[in-house]
Every structure is written in C-alpha cells, then in structure tokens.
Write a structure and sequence with these properties.
CATH superfamily of the largest domain: Alpha/Beta hydrolase fold, catalytic domain
CATH class of the largest domain: Alpha Beta
Order of helices and strands: HEEEEEHEEHEHEHEHHHHHHHEHEHH
Number of domains: 2
Strand content: 15-25%
Number of helices: 15
Largest sheet: 9 strands, mixed
Structural class: alpha/beta
CATH topology of the largest domain: Rossmann fold
Mean pLDDT: 90
Shape: globular
Strand order of the largest sheet: 2-3-4-8-5-9-10-11-12
Radius of gyration: 20 Å
Oligomer: single chain
Helix content: 25-40%
Number of strands: 12
Length: 417
Amino acid sequence: MRIRLALAARSVLAAGLVLAAGAVPAQAAPDFYAEPAEIPSEPGTVVATEPIPFVGQTGAPAQRVKYTSTLADGTPVAVTGTYLEPSAPYPAGPTPTVVIGPGTQGQGDQCAPSRQFPTGGQYDPKTGSTSINYEGAFAVAFLTQGIRVFVTDYIGLGTPGIHTYVNRVEQGHAMIDAARAATTLGDDDHAGPVAFWGHSQGGGAAASAAELVGDYAPELNVAGTYASAPPADLDAVLRHIDGTGLTAAIGFAINGFVARYPELQSVVDEASNDRGKEVLRRVSTQCLIEARREFGGTSTAQWTKDGKTLADSIGGNPVVQRVFDDQRIGDGTPSAPVLVNTAQADDFIPTDQARRLVTEWCSRGADASLYVNELPPVPGGLGVNHLSPAATDFGVGLGWIKDRFAGVATTSRCAEI
C-alpha cells in the first residue's frame, strides 16, 4: 500500500512540474469571462463553451465552460470552469464524473483555473502575478482512469464580481451546478455517477456540496465525496493561519464576506488601520503565489488600530459571529458517503476541526470516515504539512472514489474517530 501511494504521489507531482513548466506571460482576459447578456435561471445550464488545449494531456477533449449557479440568496450567476473528457475508456459501466474544487488560487480574475489549463500557468512580468494550474495534475490522474473531470472556477473567480472565497453555500452551489452542467456535455448519455473532490479550499467546497446536494440537486447520482483538509470552522482556521505563509487568505475571506454581508464593512473599517485597508485592497486582485510572497509570515496584528490580531480585535462582534455561524460546515447531513482527509500536523487547517466535522456528521447518521496523514510536523508555518497530503494521500482518495463508482459498499468507521 505504501509503495502504491508513493507511486501515485510521484506521478501527481511529476505532472504538476510539467504543468508549471508551461507557464507563460499572462494574456488579456478574453470575452468568454464577460457577464452574459442573460443568465438562465435554471442552475447548471451551460451558457457557453469553447475548445481549449490542455498542457500535459494529449488526445482528451477539453472545453472552457460557462454555466449557471446561484448565490447564497438564490440569485442566478454565471460561473466558469473546465470540462475534460478522458481519452481512456472507463473499465465498466457509464463514464463517471469527478467535480474538482480547486485549492486556494487567489482573488484576482487572472487566477481562475480555467485560464491556466491551456498553458499550465501564467506570469505577468509587469505585476509579478503568477498562477499555476495545481489541479491539472489531479485532473490528468483521473482522466487516465477513464473518469470525466469538471474543475470549477467558483463564483467570481474569472467572472465579474469579487470571488467569494470560502463562502460555504456559494462554493457548494458552484460544485453541484458544475456536476449538472457536465451531464449535458460530451458524447455519451452521462448516466454515470458523480463524485466531489477537493483539498483545502476545495475540501471545504466538496464538503459543503456533500451537505447541500441532497436538497439542492436531488436528481444527481452522487456516489461520494473526498474532502481533504476542509476548512469547516472558519473561526478556528483563520486564527490558525494568522502569521503563517497563508495570512493573505484572511484578506481573501474578508473581501468575499463583505460583498455578501455589507454590514461587515463598517466593523472591518473601524478595526483596520491604513496598512490593513491597503492589504485588503491589494489581495483582492492577487493570486496566491504573489500574495504569499508579499504578506506571508506576517500577522494581522499589523492591520489593526489596536495592535491585536483581527480575530482578537473583531472576533466577538455579533456580525462577525453571524458570518462564522453561517459558514460553518457540519450542521447538515451528507446524502452519500464522505471520506475526510486531515493531517495530524497540518500547519494551515487545524486537524481538530476536521475531526469534529466527521464526528458531527456521524452523529446525524451520515456515512463518514476519516483518514489521518501522520507526517511529522515541519516547522516554519510554510504549509508543508498542509500541502504534502494533497499529493501523498492522492492514492487513498483515488482508490476510495473508484470503489464508490464501482458500487463497493462502505464500512462505517464512525466508532474509530
């Protein structure tokens, strides 16, 4: 098993290097991402498609897709993503589909994963903005198994409006509606099962989709969800990453939540000094690599008037508490099996809140399991213990998803948590 996992991780990392090597100067945003003249009200409706090349993969059709989803208040919105058909046939039965929720990309429109698939990444020498298609390697691995892939860009990433980073409902909707859109694309009858997959931000999006899909899209044939390092409790997560290489993500989150909770703006403004306001403005147009380079390792205590971290400065405010309560994953019940992956020494996403998520699902009768990565802690707050499991545990998740697609029965492991 360890040999198989090591080989799987090596193949994923190798593919990632190929994709990264293809990075080219960023191009002007194509009209494809513009707001459509009319947004169909039916979620999952395909609005537009265009064929694109896919670096690192040959012979597999790829399409950039614009489809409809809904905001948390039910308003229709256009979302983009990437649809990939496998070149290899699925061994038995209808072709299944995996919807991938990307890990943190950033908040600038240039960071959208669908913009990176043709080249593997983009670099703008004028701004220093760098994007790498992290999810392309995982997509290749699924495609080689005969599994169809749809990678969502999420709401507001690439398309007009702010990207609502880690917004529970909107990320879940974008994942589910990507699955709906996938059922109308390609050449076969799309009767195969669907699975949700993601790590980090994507793990939270996948976990949210697992909770929401039963009511939001009961027609989908969901076989299971693999949620790796899910940020289920944002209060705990944002406190945990403050001062690490991922501090800028706190800015991504604030910017997105202010767009949906306008009353939060005055709370943030009252607490923030000029430096804090400037950081929030800058990260709103940055990709992760650039934001980490500029703000990684700093504390939000540098953003506030009272010199406290943002969590300590505004965490007790009732508006902030309402945001955290609304965004909490674990209050719903998945309608299909879920495997949650967590690293015991994750330096970005606390493992305790991931364990608690599974415990809460189990208490509601959900079919949930936990896999723990036991890599010893690597100091420095650079994210080694957070990023490594995405690759080293890929074989675990892939095998689990393939078993769900094959109809293999799960064995409850709730009692082991």
